[in-house]
């Protein structure tokens, strides 16, 4: 791998690490939470655009590992699609569990008999993330 490929691989990683550090500092200083989330979404969009513009970043394994069936650009888009399906499904699952778990704890605190019924809704929220991972496995092996 030459220097240009290494540089193209390092740019998105450095950008994402820098955005995580800035958002962590923002949370520690009790700054605006909406602005921090917007910063994370903008950094994700920038890395996504970078990976679409430079397919070598999304296809870091190289042409020898890409296989004969797909060219490097198609293989990179396959990796990008698998990552997006898992990432978006995990965000949705996190939102579902974030809203369902406190309600389940509240229902179990009022009446312990409701614990079994309430935990099912939390498990359904976690299932969304598992479905996203399953789709990404199907994309990678298809």
Keywords for this entry:
flat; F1FO ATP Synthase; about 85% helix; 6 helices; 2 domains; mainly alpha; about 140 residues
Task: Describe the structure in brief.
The protein has helices spanning 3-28, 33-53, 55-58, 63-66, 72-110, 115-141. It is mainly alpha-helical and 142 residues long.
Characterise this structure.
It is a single chain. This protein is an all-alpha fold and 142 residues long. The protein folds into 2 domains: 1-58; 65-142, F1F0 ATP synthase subunit C (F1FO ATP Synthase, Up-down Bundle), CATH 1.20.20. Helices cover 85% and strands 0% of the residues. It starts with a helix and ends with a helix.
Class based on secondary structure composition and strand pairing: mainly alpha
User: Into how many domains do the coordinates divide?
Assistant: 2
User: What global shape is seen?
Assistant: flat
* Total number of beta strands: 0
As a whole number of angstroms, the C-alpha radius of gyration is 20 Å
């Amino acid at each position: 791998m030459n220097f240009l490929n290494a540089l193209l691989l390092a740019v998105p990683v450095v950008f994402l690490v820098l955005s995580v550090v800035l958002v962590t500092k923002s949370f520690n200083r009790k700054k605006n939470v909406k602005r921090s989330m917007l910063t994370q979404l903008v950094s994700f969009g920038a890395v996504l655009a970078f990976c679409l513009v430079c397919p070598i970043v999304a296809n870091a394994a190289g042409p020898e590992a890409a296989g004969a069936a797909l060219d490097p650009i198609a293989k990179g888009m396959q990796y990008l699609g698998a990552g997006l399906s898992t990432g978006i499904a995990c965000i949705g699952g996190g939102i579902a569990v974030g809203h369902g778990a406190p309600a389940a704890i509240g229902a179990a605190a009022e009446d312990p008999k409701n614990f079994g019924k309430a935990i099912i809704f939390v498990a359904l929220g976690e299932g969304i993330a598992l479905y996203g991972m399953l789709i990404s496995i199907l994309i990678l092996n298809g």
